Amino acid sequence: GDSVTQMEGPVTLSEEAFLTINCTYTATGYPSLFWYVQYPGEGLQLLLKATKADDKGSNKGFEATYRKETTSFHLEKGSVQVSDSAVYFCALSEKETSGSRLTFGEGTQLTVNP
Amino acid sequence: EPEVTQTPSHQVTQMGQEVILRCVPISNHLYFYWYRQILGQKVEFLVSFYNNEISEKSEIFDDQFSVERPDGSNFTLKIRSTKLEDSAMYFCASTETGGGAADTQYFGPGTRLTVL
User: What is the maximum span of chain A, computed from C-alpha positions, in angstroms?
Assistant: First the structure.
């Protein structure tokens, strides 16, 4: 079945450091790929998404490119801020018809220190 | 900005008791979902719901679980006889359109269920 694997956390960085969180996936078809973020005490929020190969999703300085050849969707940000501290989830959705489920990775806890 | 809301934020219950977790999806959304996250584990899909019936369910969603849209705004998850292993954070989500792979699911803040 479908699966998503994220790099193990937690990740601790200093402010303005470069961030990469690795995500690879296994799917039988052509999934859509997502990054969700969960700030402390809040629900999951969509950060960015890409729906086909070579698409780049971007939002709030974060980027991820859908790489079909390496089945990856790594999250990057050039300069992190303290406010980026959160848990980041990579996810995929495959079913084109109704009620498509999301399959999540393990989540990566990011802490950014001033 | 419209958001998905969930109540209660934390529910404590005794093993064997029934619990109902409540969600109010975004008002013009058509597809509704429940997920759960056991502490330290992945977020797992439970069920999707459209047009007053279950669209898809996972192997976790056995006979002790049920979902309902009792009125035009609420979407509920009932666990009939709770077990210790049902302790988890339960998330509700909704999508505006067809619920396909590219559609964004909007999540609520979750209900933490603790079964003693």
Answer: 45
Note the pLDDT of residue A98: 53
Determine the 3-state secondary structure of A13 from DSSP: strand
Helix (H) or strand (E) holding B5, with range, is strand B5-7
CA distance A13 to A16: 8
Interface of B with A (CB under 8 A): 4, 6, 31, 33, 35, 41-45, 48-50, 55-56, 58, 91, 93, 98-110
For residue B101, list chain A residues with Cβ-Cβ distance below 8 A: 31-32, 51, 93-96, 100
Nearest to A97 among B49, B100, B102 (CB): B100
User: Which position has the token pair 């999951």?
Assistant: A44
Spatial separation of the C-alpha atoms in residues A8 and B64, rounded to whole Å: 33
B24, B106 contact by CB (below 8 A) = no
**How far away is chain A from the Cα of B62, in angstroms, using its nearest Cα?**
17
The confidence band for B104, taking pLDDT boundaries of 50, 70 and 90, is confident
Q: Under an 8 A CB cutoff, do A89 and B55 touch?
A: no
Per DSSP, A101 falls in state P
The mean per-residue pLDDT over the stretch B93-100 comes to 77
